[in-house]
Amino acid sequence: MESTYTPTQVANELNVSTTTLRRYEEQGLIPDVPRTAGNHRYYTLVHFQAFAAIRSLLIGYDIPVVYDAMRQIKNGDITNALWMVNNQLHLIQLEKQRVEEILGMVKKADFNQYRNVKLTDSMTIGKVAEMAGVNTSAIRHWEKEGLITSTRDKENGYRMFTLSELRKILVISSLRKTIYYIENLKDLLNDLETNRLTKIDQSFRFALQRLNHKLRAQFKGVAELMKYIELYREDF
Q1: Which of 65, 139, 152, 217 is the most buried (most CB within 10 A)?
Q2: What percent of the chain is predicted at pLDDT more than 70?
Q3: In the predicted model, what is the mean pLDDT of residues 57-66?
Q4: Max CA-CA distance within the chain?
C-alpha cells in the first residue's frame, strides 16, 4: 500500500506551514490532491516529493521560474520544464563570467574597450545600460543616489557618461546584489577612483562566492526535481 501523509505531517517534515502547502496546491504546482471518504485532503509520496522539490528549488531559483517549471510538469511538459531550469543554469554561468571579466577590467589602468566595443568619453545612457546588463531606470536611480554622475549633451539634453562613470556602473551592476548599503558602495567607488583596489577585489571575490553558493543550491534543487519527475512518471 502506498504511503500517505496528512498536510501536517508534510508541513512538519519540510519545516513549512500547512498554509504554504495549500498555496502551492492552489497555484497548480503539484498533482491533484486526493480526498478521503470523509473529504479530508491527503498526500502521497509523489506529492511529498513535489513539495520537497519546490522548497529546494526556491533556494537557488527565482519564484516565477520554479512555479512555471512545476506547472509545466503538472501539465505533462517535463522536457520544457527542464529546459526552463537549464536556462537558469546558463544565466548564472554568464553572470560568473561577467563578474570575472569586470574584475579584470577594474584592475586595468588602460580601459578603452569592453567586450570588443570601443569606448569613448561620451556614451549614452542606453549604451552604458546595455553594456552593464541593466535597465536605464537603474542607471537613473544610481545617479539619483549619488553613485554616478552624467553630463548633458548640449544639442539634445541627453545624459552622457564618461569612461570613468562607465567603470563605476559596471562595478555597481556586478556588486549590487552583495553590497546592500548605498554608503558601502560609495566607499568602494571612492576606492575605485583613487585606484585602491583591495576592498573592491574582496567584494568581487565575495560576489563570486555568492554565485558559487547559488550554483550549488541550484543543483541540489535539480536533484530533488528529478526525484519528483521520476515519481510523477510512475504515477501519471
Answers
A1: 139
A2: 97
A3: 96
A4: 79
CATH of 108-196, one of 1.10.1660.10, 1.10.443.10, 2.60.120.10, 1.10.3520.10: 1.10.1660.10
C-alpha 27/C-alpha 68 separation (Å) is 10
pLDDT at 60: 95
- Per the DSSP assignment, residues forming a β-bridge with 152 are 159
Tens digit of each residue's pLDDT (9 = 90 or more) over 174-191: 888 777 667 788 888 888
Length of the chain: 236
Q: What is the pTM of this model?
A: 0.82
**Domain boundaries of the chain, sorted by first residue:** 4-91+217-235, 108-196
Three-state secondary structure along the chain?
CCCEECHHHHHHHHCCCHHHHHHHHHCCCCCCCCECCCCCECEEHHHHHHHHHHHHHHHHCCHHHHHHHHHHHHCCCHHHHHHHHHHHHHHHHHHHHHHHHHHHHHCCCCCCEECCEECCCCEEHHHHHHHHCCCHHHHHHHHHCCCCCCEECCCCCCEEECHHHHHHHHHHHHHCCCCCCHHHHHHHHHHHHCCCCHHHHHHHHHHHHHHHHHHHHHHHHHHHHHHHHHHHHHHC
From the list 209, 208, 213, 219, the residue with the least C-alpha distance to 56 is: 219
Q: Is 4-91+217-235's fold the same as 108-196's?
A: yes
Model confidence over 12-55: pLDDT tens digits?
A: 999 999 999 999 999 999 999 999 989 999 999 999 999 999 99
Which CATH class, in words, describes the domain spanning 4-91+217-235? mainly alpha
